[in-house]
């Protein structure tokens, strides 16, 4: 049967043309990113401090000894994260351990890709499968996660497991997936708010309990666990002016006054709060759209408004970007995809031409910040425009979806519904991709 699937044949439909063209391109892109670019590595090596900390942990030596005056990658994980990652040092050959970690994250990303397909009710035989795989591995976030060799691929997998289990109302297991991620790094912690507003309280039991239990186990096994709080934690709350695309990071790099940095952060925070309120008020019964869109807004706000935001964190936005297949998506406009290009593209905008260096450097350093910011502005504007239009037309009680979004009974591909308080879910038609 497998050989029959691989048998060369001429495409008869547009969908088959796209699939026949993109599957080999997507697969070869994956192989290039994993076995060539990642194995070759780069001057930035996120894995070395992780490997050294794991080795120190297993041998009873101090772990939290980083010199934060340097710009080299530092070891910043909690004691619970050290416990989880320590097995990588069982391989005493650093290079082989790094290859294994690359492979682990590549597998995690591919599993997350499959779960993302299933979340939106697509199969491996759909056109979306090769398109999504190619887009993910062409992005800066996946490429540099593998090249720099960090744990973000596993964090993405934890996010996808959390979203699946949350929507299936398997709250304790959803909390376990989120808790394992939080035990290493707090990137996905804002997603607890999604569980909170949905009334899924049991998520908190395991999402907070897992890191606490792992910390309790790691504490007596560590040489200096208390130094995480006295030495490392204060650094995490500082704003650094290098490799930092958050508003605060770029603001300090360009020498902006503190009041202006805070004004921009608070202003964007207001937009985020209004967007989240509109999502909760009018879309919380539209579960797939609400969970993925609200999660994307929360995570984008975290990257932009916190003390540290790095471009490859954008991997966690894949579920949000996938909502474009839903008819009521807030991403069906060109400004949204201009923003996404800013923080997803692997292109470099640095220029070596005389007189262009300054412009190219600014464009390269600011495109991520502007991309995250523009995405949040787009969400606010789309939801705000829908709300004002519905209010003007006297149909707020029926929701704020545009009138051109019509219900399509029995369509299971989108699980997208017009919803207002007290209204029944209505399934919306997605893009035709089969």
UniProtKB/TrEMBL annotation:
Q: Which residues form the signal peptide?
A: none
InterPro entries membership: GT87 (IPR018584)
Q: Does the keyword NADP apply?
A: no
One GO molecular function term? Answer: hexosyltransferase activity
Q: How does it sit in the membrane?
A: Multi-pass membrane protein
UniProt keyword list:
Cell membrane, Membrane, Transferase, Transmembrane, Transmembrane helix
- One CC-aspect GO term: plasma membrane
Where, per UniProt, does this protein localize? Answer: Cell membrane
Stretches for region Disordered? 415-434
Segments spanning the bilayer are 20-39, 75-92, 99-116, 122-139, 146-167, 173-196, 203-221, 259-280, 287-305, 370-388
Please tell me where this protein is predominantly located.
membrane
Q: Which family does it belong to?
A: Belongs to the glycosyltransferase 87 family.
According to UniProt, the name of this protein is Arabinofuranan 3-O-arabinosyltransferase
The organism is: Nocardia tenerifensis
What does the record give as the organism's lineage?
Answer: Bacteria, Bacillati, Actinomycetota, Actinomycetes, Mycobacteriales
